[in-house]
Amino acid sequence: MMLFGHENGRPTSALTFHRNFADGDVRAYAEHFVDTSPYVERGLTKLPVGRARLSEAVISNDDLARTEFYNDFIRARGLGCYAAGVIIERNQRRSVALSLADHKDDADRRQGQLRLLDLLTPHIARAFRLHGLLDRERQQGRAALLVFETWAHAALLLSSDGRLVTMNRAAEQMAALRDGIALSRDGRLRATTETANAALDQAIFACAAGGPHIAVNGLALPRLSGGFLNAMISPLPQGAECDGALGKVLVILVDADAERRTPIQWITTRYGLAPAEARLAALLVQGDTLAEAASALGIKLSTARTRLKAVQAKTGCHRQADLVRLALSMPVLRS
Question: C or N: which end of the chain has fewer Cβ atoms within 10 Å?
């Protein structure tokens, strides 16, 4: 017996199961004889899906005996050639089949195999559909986590009971400092004061229960070193799965006192800014005046004005406020 799958014309180990076939025979098939098999060329592409058939429906025994596949693979390895099989799934990318092979052409036994395959096929097909659905969901979850990891801001995904499901690298670094937030031993997000803890728990559980969205400036978590972390806590109605755990609440933390990062690299590439122009633009976007930016860069104010005119000409931003709006229209990604 063999359950085997082919993706883009090649065998895939993820969809292969066999009994009474030697591992070496399966490897030989995958490495070479799949290209000579009339069952792949004709059966996987032409037989109807979900209806069991004898191997003679694909190729007659006389024609099979003249093929390389029979003489160098089936006969040379002492394999059975009297088979019954069924196509379980077929699409543009993948084909999956289940087959039973015997050494003898026992009519009663082979008819019994056809009945068995017809009985099993709906259940196996349903299992494959569920497998495909779960696989797509896992892939979407992995893609979402990759995007999550590129954020520059600290972000955490929490379960409905407030425990950590996953967090990005920026959040790991922030939690490790234990300055404003930390993670308890049971994986809960904790603030540095009891008052902030109570507000944080209330916001998280309200979101998990489908409560109102908590605004970014509605929850400020005090830092031991002074200042605050601004917290935006948002519900995820559909949830997001990670390693089997379901995240229901997204927490984004912004350190208001940290150096602000802007997507100046994107602006530089998009508008062709020179390195000196990009450095000036980055300071202006962060809120520095032209005089402050000139002092920080160690250049004359007149030189800064000349560079600013070049930036304005390239970007079409004729005021510093326009340049700031351009930067804010771009997402800030982690370096």
Answer: C
